[in-house]
Write a structure and sequence with these properties.
The complex is a heterodimer of chains A (111) and B (888). Chain A has 111 residues and is an alpha+beta fold. Helices cover 56% and strands 14% of the residues of chain A. The longest helix of chain B is centred in the middle third of the chain and has 45 residues, at 348-392. The chains are: A alpha+beta (111), B alpha+beta (888).
């Protein structure tokens, strides 16, 4: 399998996880898959870093977790966005858009 | 909300760790399963798919650590694990652990106890407001014979000083006194102070109730029928009744005085234990206060704001010259000086002893540090490989450091609990005996006693101990951490245990280490010799005859009824007391003296035999006719006093054997009288030497004159049990006169016990030091040798394998032990010879070269070193040749 995927921009994984969870509650493995899918395979999530991020998000109170039956009826831990998490996502998204616009402006400046 | 959720999550982490761990494991299993299925779908075999999934997750352990590190309660959990691990590690190496614990306990125990004493006696501020601004002003007699005179003023000279001085805001005369207070149920001797009206202002004490007296009530010639009482007396004698103020009167030395105020608890004036304060004119007659030569009061003053002590000293010296000009003395020039209170709080000799004690502790602490370093080295060398392996297997460096630091902290904590235990026990013991061990004479002795009342197990002392513990723990921890952080570890792994064939030079400095241990041994020898000399001195001092028979003897200080006692009536009043006592069954003799053995402060004077040029200093006592038979002090020549001696025109005296020998010399005292100005005093007898003030020194030259006066010491000789007779003695004195005040009735045996406390205490403290130093030196020797054996295990094993006998190997270790013992022993003995010379001056009848002491010290040392060497030597004997092969 040729590996031409990008590594994540540092600091964005948290935002991407929140975004993924804002669409639907999901378990850890699913979150990684979903990010990869949504980015059309551009991003591959380093699975070793995903779980610590989830841990941190739980501590902040931005996501909660519960055990549910998964698609194939196996017990899995599902993460869900809390209201505070939704607000956090909105904030981060805003910040991201602003700064990426700014970066783009600079990069497109000619001569 | 998010906070609350987060908090709940954290709490759950703290409380339900195991559940969380299980969840993590399950979550992880789920992840792997899904990922593997994905790979299977892509065409991999199930086994390969699982492997790949695991690889992608990137090391199960790491991720688990990474999530777990974020987990709440992680730190606490790890700490508990580290502590458990540390305890296990310590239990596994009892030799190391016990050595380190003993070292720590001794170090922390000794330094905390000594700090407590030094702090109470020397460092802590005196219990007065702003004590740094209080000065003691003294008048100096020309060619002062005794330093006590240094403190003393007469009223006219004080008045002149007060008029001229500008540097003090307030100043007051004062003097410790013992007064008789009459109660409904008899009379009581109470420690009191004569104090000028400003005394309370100078010391900065405010009355708890009422007021202190006014300058008008303290004026010479004025009506001064007032008294201020201490809280203690107010509580015990006046029922803590607030209505007594301004109303009740106390009969003090036969005069009714109105209580105007109560001072707060804990205040005992400059003498420390006063319970009554009376104005100057209440304690001194008008005649005394008019006489410029009646020097019998002390002066204390508070500096005016903005005046520095040095400026005050200069001003006081200048006024001193004026006083000398106003009251010229043929004998020479008088002068005045001022001291800060803190300079007087300790007598010079006690200050020196305390400083020596501090020095001893500093040395002991140095030994402790050397030992701990050495023990850590031993431990570190043994663990280098273990640590290196763990690092290589991916253990985090931080975690390892934390584990080692925890081990050190656990060790320090255990050691200090033991140490603080030792300190508290030691302080209790010392504090209970210190007041008894106070010297009875010297400058500022009241202040010294006062300072010592501050000695005890206080928060400050415990704080010091705890701080010391934390510091030790920190140092140990850092030392351990450096071992991991050091670059050498990986190298250690790479080299295998090559380091043990050639001792690594980095950790080497074996010479330095050997030197330190040798120094320890030498110090231990010095401590041993000095304490040995002291013990020997004590033994000799106690073996010398006292000059009186201590069994069957009761004594009590007594003051005659102040109302009835007049110069012409005291003889009859004493006779009345003696007559009552003589009726008691079993009483054989009743003596009265101005002073008695032992530990009381007796007056000093000088005596000149006729035809001699110089005067000899003597102890000067007044004694009744039966005084010597009550004490059973033998009259060697001539006779004791007779009832008529006081009335005879020709004055008489007795001298002791030492006075006869040292002062009369070749002249016969019974023939050659003493001269006092125009008077000639006939010596009627020579009595045996008797020890009065202390037991450590031989009896000084002593003279006795016939007894007179209204206060003295009553001596009752009985056939029976003296302690059982004490209540009867008290009742007999009451029958003779309800106004007579009797102090505590003690047996002579009890006084003797108290009197030897100081020297026994000194010997005990020194012995404790010596024992500690010896133990520490032994631990040090053990540490060094153990390190050596550990470092050379492989070398020893190879030698064994090559055919060297076990004993020749043990010799390698033993040789070093012998070298340490010999070099340290010889060096220590030389140092002890020097120290002994200094110490012997303070000792009784002991030469610095006391062979038995040196031999005993040497033997003890040898035993200790041998015992310490035994364990490492045995280990070297048991080195298995196979070990050499194993390790590679």
């Amino acid at each position: 399998m040729p590996d031409d995927s990008l590594s994540l921009i540092p600091g964005t994984l948290e935002m991407l996880v929140l975004k993924t969870l804002s669409l639907a509650p999901m378990h850890g493995w699913g979150i990684g898959e979903r990010i990869q899918q949504l980015s059309r395979d551009a991003f591959r999530v380093n699975q070793g870093t995903l779980y610590p991020v989830l841990e941190r998000l739980q501590q902040q109170g931005w996501v909660t977790a519960e055990w549910r039956a998964s698609e194939n009826n196996r017990r899995a831990k599902y993460y869900r966005l809390t209201r505070a998490g939704a607000k956090r996502l909105a904030d981060e998204q805003l910040d991201w858009e602003r700064s990426s616009r700014a970066v783009n402006l600079i990069l497109r400046t000619v001569g | 909300m998010s906070r609350l959720l987060g908090l709940r999550y954290r709490l759950r982490g703290l409380l339900r760790r195991d559940a969380l761990d299980a969840e993590t494991a399950e979550e992880l299993a789920f992840h792997l399963e899904r990922q593997a299925r994905k790979h299977v779908a892509a065409g991999l075999s199930p086994a390969a798919a699982m492997r790949r999934a695991r690889l992608e997750l990137g090391g199960v352990e790491r991720w688990r650590e990474a999530t777990a590190d974020l987990r709440p309660g992680r730190l606490l959990h790890d700490l508990a694990a580290d502590v458990r691990y540390a305890l296990r590690g310590l239990r596994a190496r009892p030799g190391y652990t016990l050595s380190a614990l003993a070292t720590l306990a001794i170090g922390i125990g000794a330094s905390t106890a000594i700090f407590g004493i030094v702090d109470g006696a020397l460092l802590r501020p005196l219990p007065f407001r702003d004590p740094g601004r209080i000065m003691s002003v003294v008048l100096r007699m020309p060619m002062q014979a005794s330093q006590l005179v240094d403190m003393v003023w007469s009223y006219p000279k004080f008045a002149l000083f007060r008029e001229r001085q500008t540097v003090f805001a307030s100043l007051a005369l004062h003097s410790p006194e013992t007064v008789v207070v009459a109660h409904a149920d008899g009379a009581e001797r109470v420690p009191a102070e004569m104090a000028g009206a400003s005394y309370f202002e100078v010391l900065g004490v405010r009355p708890l109730l009422g007021r202190t007296y006014t300058p008008a009530e303290d004026r010479v010639g004025g009506a001064s029928d007032v008294v201020v009482v201490g809280e203690g007396l107010w509580r015990t004698r006046l029922g803590a009744d607030p209505r007594v103020v301004g109303v009740r009167a106390l009969t003090i030395d036969g005069v009714a005085r109105t209580i105007v105020g109560v001072l707060p608890a804990g205040f005992g004036g400059l003498s420390g234990d006063a319970q009554l304060w009376i104005p100057v004119p209440a304690a001194r007659s008008a005649a005394v206060l008019e006489s410029p030569g009646a020097h019998n009061m002390q002066l204390v003053a508070r500096l005016r704001p903005g005046v520095a002590p040095a400026a005050a000293r200069a001003a006081v010296a200048a006024i001193g010259a004026e006083i000398d000009a106003a009251y010229p003395d043929d004998g020479g020039h008088w002068s005045a000086a001022a001291y800060e209170l803190s300079a007087l709080r300790m007598t010079p000799s006690l200050r020196r002893s305390l400083q020596l004690l501090g020095l001893g502790v500093a040395l002991l602490l140095a030994i402790v540090c050397v030992n701990l370093t050495m023990l850590l080295l031993v431990r570190g060398t043994a663990r280098r490989q273990e640590l290196a392996v763990r690092l290589a297997l991916g253990g985090s460096r931080g975690r390892l450091v934390r584990q080692l630091a925890t081990e050190s902290l656990v060790l320090a904590a255990l050691g200090s609990v033991l140490g603080l235990g030792i300190a508290v026990a030691g302080m209790r013991l010392l504090a209970s005996k210190l007041p008894l061990s106070m010297p009875t004479t010297g400058v500022g002795i009241e202040l010294t006693r006062l300072a010592f009342t501050g000695v005890g197990v206080t928060g400050r002392t415990l704080g010091f101990g705890v701080a010391l513990t934390l510091l030790t723990g920190l140092c140990l921890g850092v030392a351990s951490a450096l071992r991991v952080a050091g670059r050498g570890l990986v190298a250690a792994l790479r080299q295998g245990s090559a380091s043990s064939v050639a001792p690594p030079s980095r950790h080497g400095a074996p010479l330095l280490r050997g030197g330190l241990v040798t120094l320890q041994v030498a110090l231990a020898v010095v401590f041993l010799v000095v304490s040995g000399l002291t013990l020997r001195s004590l033994q000799r001092a106690l073996a010398v005859p006292l000059g009186y028979e201590p069994d069957g003897l009761l004594l009590a200080k007594m003051t005659l009824d102040p109302v009835r006692a007049r110069p012409d009536s005291t003889g009859a009043l004493w006779q009345g007391v003696v007559d009552e006592l003589r009726r008691l069954p079993g009483v054989r003799a009743i003596g009265i003296g101005s002073c008695a053995p032992v530990g009381m402060h007796c007056d000093g004077s000088s005596v000149t035999p006729q035809g001699h040029a110089g005067a000899g200093r003597v102890l000067y006592l007044r004694a009744s006719p039966e005084y010597f038979s009550a004490l059973r002090t033998p009259v060697l020549r001539g006779r004791a006093f007779e009832p008529g001696d006081t009335l005879r025109a020709r004055p008489v005296m007795l001298v002791n054997r030492t006075a006869a020998r040292t002062i009369w010399g070749t002249d016969d005292p019974l023939v050659t009288p003493a001269v006092d100005g125009e008077r000639r005093i006939q010596v009627v007898g020579v009595v045996e030497d008797a020890r009065y003030e202390d037991l450590e020194r031989p009896a000084p030259p002593t003279v006795y004159v016939p007894f007179r006066g209204s206060r003295g010491v009553l001596l009752v000789r009985t056939d029976g049990d003296p302690a059982a007779l004490a209540p009867a003695v008290r009742q007999a004195v009451r029958r003779a006169g309800a106004g007579h005040a009797l102090g505590e009735v003690q047996t002579m045996r009890a006084r003797l016990r108290d009197a030897t406390v100081r020297s026994r205490l000194g010997a005990q403290v020194l012995t404790a030091f010596a024992a500690s130093a010896l133990l520490l030196a032994a631990v040090g020797v053990y540490g060094t040798l153990a390190l050596r054996v550990t470092q050379r295990t492989r070398e020893l094993a190879i030698r064994r394998a090559l055919g060297a006998s076990a004993w020749s190997l043990a010799g390698l270790v033993g040789r070093q032990a012998v070298a340490i013992a010999v070099v340290g022993g010889v060096g220590g003995t030389l140092a002890a010879l020097a120290a002994g010379r200094g110490v012997a001056a303070l000792l009784y009848d002991v030469r610095p070269l006391e062979p038995s002491v040196y031999v005993a010290s040497g033997l003890l040392l040898l035993l200790a070193v041998l015992a310490a060497a035994a364990v490492p030597t045995r280990r070297s004997l048991r080195v298995d040749p196979r070990e050499a092969m194993h390790a590679e």
